[in-house]
What does this fold into?
Amino acid sequence: MKRYFPLGVVLTLLATLLLSACGDNTAAPVATTAAASATTAAGAVTTAAGAATTAAAGAATTAAAQANAGDIVWLSTQLSAVQENEGFTKNVLNSFNGKVNYIQKDNGPYTDQILSEEKAGKVTVSLLGGLHGDFPPFIQNDLLEDLTPLAAKLKDRGIPQTFLDLGKMGTNKQYYIPWMQATYVMAYNKKALQYLPAGADANKLTYDQFRDWAAAIQKGTGERKLGIPAGPKGLYNRLLQGYLYPAYTGGEVTGFRSPEAVQMWTYLKDLWKYANPQSVSYEFMQEPLQSGEVWLTIDHTARLIDAVKSKPDDFVLAPAPSGAKGLAFMPVLAGMAIPKGAPNKAGAEALIDFISTPQTQINTTRQVAFFPVVKADLPADLAPGIKAEAAAVAAQSSAPNALPSLLPVGLGAQNGDFNKVYTDTFTRIILKNEDIKTVLEDETKIMNNVLNTAKAPCWSPDPPSTGPCQVK
Amino acid sequence: MSLKQEPEQALKTPGQAGEVALPDFKRRRRRFNYTPFLLLLPATLFLAIFFLYPMLQSFIIAFQDSQGGFTFDNIDTMVKDTNFGDALKYTLLFIVIIVPLQVVLALIMALVINTGLKWAGFFLYIWTIPLAISDLAAGIVWYSIFTNHGYINQILIQLGLTQTPIDFLSFENPTLVFVAVVIAELWRATAIVMVILVAGLQVIPRAYTEAAEVFGASPWQRLWHVTLPMLKPSLQVALILRTILAFQTFALVFALAGRIMPVLAGEAYKWYNDVRNVGVAATYALLILLLSLANTFIYLRFLNTKAEELA
It folds into this structure.
């Protein structure tokens, strides 16, 4: 027996290794994703438990609004952080009359699950949640229901027409109903205020002042405390598309290689000198903000909320800086769609209706760092962090020089390739120090190819085009 | 392992294998013996369904365009991509540096455990703890050690050795980042090599080393001329496994080095997950497969264990 003991130990360890290796494959390289997949598994467990309650529902109640909507599997790319996920399922979805299994997945597995369910002819998901950019693969394969009648029914909710139009993805069908919105704002540690350049207003900065501020912080502290979310899962591509490019060139695409664009990249190279050299691995800026590594940054509201929630007295949120063409900002829009062949289409429609009520929208904002898309007045008793975020978002969108820059419209399957043009340009100019003009010329060719393949006309703030949008 | 058993059998055969054992063999030979095949069946099925089939599928995807036709475009896109050269360079560099270091370290660890000293077993448990940790988690742990406001910098500042934090993970100093990744990877994955080597050491009969000792071999000579040659099959397995796993690592590199140190597996992940271009992702996977195959072939060819070497 004793002889076999070492062998036993070895086998056990190998088994452990194999198991942990299998576990790895599902985990994406951000901490929150790993945690989220754990909740996904938990979600899958509850699916089985809730199945029994369905049959009895519906018939007894007469009023449609009160009818139990039955079992609904809601697959979503959103709310990957455990806290957000729990807050949303326990405090928002619990008031819905029906059993909702909210399952969060990363964009890749999410898309593949739906595509393979449709292929296999057995759809288990009734409702899809995702960002504007998550839907194109489904539309390309014609897998989504047209929700135009539902949108008409929800007309009195006051969803802005721009948002509804985004949900049409450049067609005349309503593919998704807007769910919630967010944006990117500037965040700073109050300790940074002492280095604010004379004459600058932290709420109305220009990009030059923003750089001077970062430089002054470095001079004063000896550390580079400007953070840019340029990690593998960082959202700096949106900062380029929706903030820097439109602020300098007035558009996202057409001015890609214009003299103003060259000026912008020169500025960014200059700014990068004051950026924390770990910016290349930053993903959620709330983390380096909280550790004190970073004092000044711009990021998605949902990726800043933990910092302002946990220490509302230390951190301040403010509108993004402005450039020559205005204060460019990108509203981020999440939407809800129903896949064709959904097992509970009526239930999913009832759920969309429920999610779009002002009360649910306000409740959602309380739980997660996303804001209502319907007409809803935020109450005064919101948590300080959320309140600060709401104020910054409002100040940004209502600034006199505000220049809203929409998420890409009509790119379809080319969405990822479009983003890659920006991240590659960044890598080549900023990290590899290649010549700006050469890189912009190279990448313009790729960009025009991407846009030609997608046949996407220009979207705001670029001027409308006849035919596919092209870099000038 | 079979090689090791030969001398034992050779010793037993003349004395013990008499009339009792032989008829038994004969009887078995008459009927076709299904047992080995039945025992192999589950593993073969498993491999066929979960490895062979997806492998063939990704092979097809790598040469397919969006309309389903045959194309080399994916290879073209992969090779021309900004990150391709770097990814290939860093992946190979990691393997060339990490794997030999791990083998040496693991060998030392395995020899310590195999000494049979009082606390040797305890070390086995301690050293295998990182095996249970996923590479992403390991990456995050090491990130919190190396980062600006991480443990190392806190200690250095407390000791007064530096005023401002040192940027270990700066994009301006890829060598330092590379060293950090190597340290983290050594911590995380040396144990798998060690476990295989410990198993290999345990089956080497003591008689050999004892005989060498009798003939006056020094401990170093015993290690070099007896233990290491006998350990060659285990070393081969450990090298093959470790190198293949090293080709697949990326979460740890992502966590520590972020965007500046692309690796092949990471690029495959990004093309699949972020760009949503399955073709190029499959091409990367195919490249990893080819490199792994080539590497396995090299190990098998050049670490070939001949029976007579052991005799």
Remarks:
- Chain A has 17 helices and eleven strands.
